[in-house]
Structures are given as C-alpha cells and as structure tokens.
Amino acid sequence: MERVQGLLEAGEFERAEAEARALAASPRTRGGDPGLVSWLARSLAAGAAVAHGRGAELLPELESLIAELEQTAGADRQLLLVLRSNRAAVLVQQDRHTEAEAEARDILHGTTRIAHLAEVWRIELNALSNLAAALNGQGRHEEAEVIARGNLSRAEGPTAAFLRRALVGSLNGQSRYEEALAEARRQTPAGGRTASGTLEIVTAGALHGLGRRDEAETTARQALAACEQFLHPAHPRIKEARTLLARIVAEDPAAE
After folding, report:
1. pLDDT greater than 80 at residue 252
2. Cβ pair 191, 198 in contact under 8 A
3. How confident is the model at residue 75 (pLDDT cuts 50, 70, 90)?
4. What is the mean pLDDT of residues 193-203?
5. What does residue 187 show for φ and ψ, rounded to 5 degrees?
6. Can you say how many angstroms the Cα of residue 21 is from the centroid of all Cα atoms in its chain?
7. Helix axes 77-93, 55-70, angle to 10 degrees
8. Domain ranges for the chain
9. For 139-187, what is each residue's pLDDT tens digit?
10. 126-143: per-residue pLDDT in tens?
11. pTM across the whole model
12. Exposure check for the chain: N or C terminus, fewer CB within 10 A?
C-alpha cells in the first residue's frame, strides 16, 4: 500500500492505479483485514484516476464506493472523507460548483467530528481548496479570496498550488490583475504533475486582464503544453487552457 501511495505522490498515476487495482483484486494475499485492504486500494485507484483527469469516468465508481462505506458499520471515517474529497474535486472539474460547495462544506464538518481521533489536516486543506474553487466558479470571488489567503501558509504540494490558483483566480475575478500577477509569481511549493498548467492558466488570465496580450498568449501556450504533456486527454484543464488561448488569440489586433 505504501508503494502505491508513493507512486501517487510522485505523479505516476497510471502505475499507481494499476497496482492499486491489482491489490484490490487480491486483498487476502497482503495480510490485514481484507475488507479494509480492498477499500484502501480501491480508494487509491480512484484517487489516481481523478488526479490524472479521468474524474467524469470515475465518478460512478466513487459514488458506489462512498455508498458502500456509508452503509458499513465501523467503516473508516477518514477514508470516507478522502473519497468524498475526490468527489468534490470531480464536481469542481465538471463545473457543478453548487454541489461541490455543499460537498466541501460537509467534508469540513466531518473533519471536526473526527479530529480528536485521526490526523485530518490534509483532508481539511483539500476540502478548503475545493471550496475556494467552487466559490470562484459561482462568481463569489471575495469569499474564495478569504479562504485561499487564510490557508495558503499551511498548505504544501499540490494543495498549495491549487490554493494559490484559487487566490489568483479570485483576484482576476475582481479585476485586481496587478495583485493577481504578483500572487501568481510568489514562490509556491511544486505542485507536481497533478497541478500541471494550473498556475500558468491564471497567470495568463492576469496578464490578459492587464492588456499584456503577447505575454498572456505565451503563458497560455505554456499552460496548454504542460497540460497536454502530463494530464490525461480528458482532463478539463486542457479544455480550459485551450479556451483561454483561443480567446486571447481572437483578440489579437494583428488578426483584424
């Protein structure tokens, strides 16, 4: 299980998913409670697929696993919250922002209920990142800004990158482009493969808002290249980068 987790953290999504599914198929050979081993392995497999960008494909499987855990007495509450966090991320990717907000807020309530029993700060930060993204998606940029600013300092890895993106996006949404650009260029922990292109997209948005079209186009192209190189072709971020690039290019005065 530790090997699968290591592959996932290293951005080796395809290998992590394959090994997790193999583990889920033969849980009794690994020792421990076979039911728990199967749940953990299936959770890791789903998480790898979602991070890779196959969230829409995996949503029915996530829903099934969540329902199974909710109906099982004594099921791991921490694992359930992790699965629900993955579901919230998929809802954000699908622009189902109202549902994503409700899911993220409920996850946060869930972390407070088990905080005395387990370490939940990573789950909490993931939920806050999804909440900020959902609020931005609803045009509630001021609320998203407060959440992102208030939690960036304690985030790391991909979560820090996504919170930074939420902050920059919230500032772009308020037409505070100079501040957005400054925030985008602050030192942020490497987000790894799962965060590919995410900061470049909002940076390009800030540059575009400032009228720096050539820089915006270059940055948008960098975002698209990173997304296409490291993410699954179905990842919604690829479409987001292409849409932004098309909008910037369409506004090129030289094209008129």
Report:
1. no
2. yes
3. low
4. 95
5. -65, 125
6. 22
7. 150
8. 1-52, 74-138, 139-256
9. 999 999 999 999 999 999 899 999 999 999 999 999 999 999 999 998 7
10. 999 999 999 999 999 999
11. 0.91
12. C
- Identify residue 126 by its one-letter amino acid code: N
Instruction: Kindly write down the DSSP assignment for every residue of the chain, as one continuous string.
Output: -HHHHHHHHTT-HHHHHHHHHHHHHSGGGG-S-HHHHHHHHHHHHHHHHHHHT-HHHHHHHHHHHHHHHHTSTT--HHHHHHHHHHHHHHHHHTT-HHHHHHHHHHHHHHHHHHTTTS--HHHHHHHHHHHHHHHHHTT-HHHHHHHHHHHGGG--HHHHHHHHHHHHHHHHHTT-HHHHHHHHTS------GGGTTHHHHHHHHHHHHTT-HHHHHHHHHHHHHHHHHHS-TT-HHHHHHHHHHHHHHHT-GGG-
Residue 157 Ramachandran class (φ > 0 left, ψ -120 to 50 alpha, else beta): left
Q: What angle do CA 229, 231, 233 make, to 5 degrees?
A: 95
* pLDDT of amino acid 256: 39
Average pLDDT of 72-100? 89
End-to-end CA distance of the chain: 57
The CATH code for residues 139-256 is 1.25.40.10
In this prediction, residue 3 has a pLDDT band, given cuts at 50, 70 and 90, of confident
Total residues found in the chain within this entry = 256
